[in-house]
Structures are given as C-alpha cells and as structure tokens.
Design goal:
Helix content: 10-25%
CATH topology: Metallo-beta-lactamase, Chain A
CATH architecture: 4-Layer Sandwich
Number of helices: 8
Bound molecules: zinc ion
Oligomer: single chain
CATH class: Alpha Beta
Distance between the termini: 18 Å
Largest sheet: 7 strands, mixed
Structural class: alpha+beta
C-alpha cells in the first residue's frame, strides 16, 4: 500500500508536511507465487500525437481515431511503468525509468516507489532491461553509484552490441550510445546477454521482439500456471499503437519491423488471452487485448488477479 504524505514524511525525516512530496503511484498484484509491483516513474504530455503515432498517416486520420476514443486530439500523455517481480527467491527489476536525469521534469521516481512499498535497493537480485533507451536505463545509476548494488543484469545480446558499436558514432543513435556508455557499460562484468528463449530466472524467459530497437526483448513470466508478458516498447499507445499496429511510430528505429513485431506479439497475447504489462500503457499499465478487424482493443485489468 502506498503511504500517505504524512507517513512518508515521517519515514524520510521530512517533517515539514508542506514540502513533503507524495510517493509515486504504485500498484501491486499477484501472479501465481509472484508479487508484482508496478511503479509510475512519471508521465509527461507530448504535443501533436500524429507526429509520434501514425507518422505515415494524415493528422486528420490520427485525430479522428483519438476523438472516437474520447481522447484529446492535440496532445497525449506518455507514462512510464517500470516493475518489480518478487518471486519469493528473487527480486527482479524490469526497466529502471529515467533516474536522476528525469527528476527536474518530475520523472525518475522508480527507485523511490520501490522503497515506498518496502523494498530496499540492495535486495534487488536481477535488473532486466527490455532495451537500452534512456527511459529504461537511466535509473541504473544513482548519485554516481549502482542504484541496485547487489544485482546482476540481463539484456539482449543484439541490443547491447548495437548500442556499443563504434558505427553508431556520428549517427542519430549517437546520443543513445552516450547514455548506454554512461549507464549500462559500467555493469558489463555483471551482465548476461540474452538470446531468444533464454531464461532469466526459473519461469521468466526472454523473447526477441525487434523493431523499436534492433535487439528489443519481451519477457514472458509464468508462475503456477499464470502468465504475464512484459512487452516493453513493442506498443506505446493503447489506442494509436494497439488499435492501429501497422501505423508508423516515430520512436521505432525500424518501422516496418516494429509493425511486424507488434502484430506478432499481440496476436499471441490475444490468442492466448493472457495479460501483459506495457511500459507506456496508462498506469498501472496492465491489461489484455482482443483482436479486431483492424488491430487490437485494449482492455485494462480490473480484479482478474484478485480472485
Ligand atoms: Zn520507452
């Protein structure tokens, strides 16, 4: 349970309630023997949705789909949902949020959220990275040291090779490369590089899902017969991306491959009727999809995990 402002102030020694800041939103549910905590690292507002989603469509087409779905047509909210999987023997962090770099914008609150539900950063045994974009990796370092000092790390082999390759210098990927060198490369000695089907811990498997980035992974979790797929950035808007998976997305590095992967992964999730956690879905970022004539309909979770 998230603490109230007063309780939080008491535990942090911030006695002046006027300056105490509420902890970030957190949401917990059970999946078999696992407890999953989703933390809202933050959210921001981005103008002109058609420039990000459906960049190969007319603005009017994108605006029409937004309006049909009761959403504003001139801006959208992007939110960030790193998560903690507590298996009973491992505490696994999946993606880390913006870290300190995001704090001036009210982002980068993942580690604070982890602590607000009673975990200590030292207890984290594994940090699993779906891909190496800043909103997923910048929280690896806190005040110049490892944010999760006792953890081992896993990410995709193709992903790591892509971002650390000298060939990125002088390309649009150079800024991303700098952030990988600053935040990921320092942990290379403690890092395992994953291929399709590799196991992270018992019951948690990596699947290749390229397109958004070249070596993007999704994680398939199974515990006592219950399943969850952590889809990372395979789809990044619950209407524009899931509803129209073929539309081009500005953030997808290989747009055609990303659309192919989006259809493949969500076809599987729809056919198996299993829940997924999508890093940029509206908080708490967990839901289901049903296949429709055009794309997928997103159904946010309600009490499915409580019974
Ligand atoms: Zn992202």
């Amino acid at each position: 349970m998230p603490m109230t402002g007063a309780a939080y102030a008491a535990t942090t020694g911030e006695n002046d309630i006027m300056t105490a800041v509420l902890p970030p939103d957190t949401h917990q549910f059970k999946l078999g023997a696992c407890t999953i905590t989703v933390v809202k690292d933050g959210a921001n507002v981005i103008d002109n949705p058609w420039e990000t989603f459906g960049s190969n469509q007319t603005p009017e087409t994108v605006q029409k789909l937004l309006a049909q779905n009761f959403l504003p047509t001139d801006k959208f909210v992007n939110s960030y949902a790193p998560a903690i999987i507590d298996t009973g023997s491992d505490i696994i962090v999946v993606d880390t949020g913006f870290g300190a770099a995001g704090r001036p914008r009210g982002l980068g609150r993942f580690r604070e959220g982890l602590q607000s539900v009673g975990y200590k950063p030292e207890q984290v045994t594994v940090v699993a990275l779906t891909h190496l974009h800043g909103d997923h990796i910048n929280g690896l370092i806190e005040e110049g040291a490892a944010a999760f000092p006792n953890a081992r790390y896993v990410t995709g082999e193709i992903e790591y090779e892509f971002w650390t390759d000298k060939a990125r210098e002088g390309t649009p990927a150079e800024a991303g490369q700098k952030s990988v060198f600053a935040n990921v490369v320092p942990f290379v000695e403690k890092m395992t590089f994953l291929k399709e089907g590799d196991q992270i811990v018992s019951g948690m498997t990596a699947m290749l899902a390229p397109g958004h980035t070249p070596g993007h992974l999704v994680f398939h979790l199974e515990s006592q017969g219950k399943q969850l797929v952590m889809t990372g950035d395979v789809a990044n808007h619950y209407i524009l991306s899931l509803g129209r998976p073929d539309w081009e997305v500005r953030f997808d590095m290989d747009k055609a491959q990303a659309a192919k992967t989006r259809n493949r992964i969500f076809d599987m999730i729809a056919a198996d009727r299993i829940p997924f956690l999508g890093f940029h879905m509206p908080f708490p970022a967990v839901g289901f999809v049903e296949k429709q004539q055009l794309g997928f309909h997103y159904v946010p979770k309600t009490y499915q995990f409580d019974l």
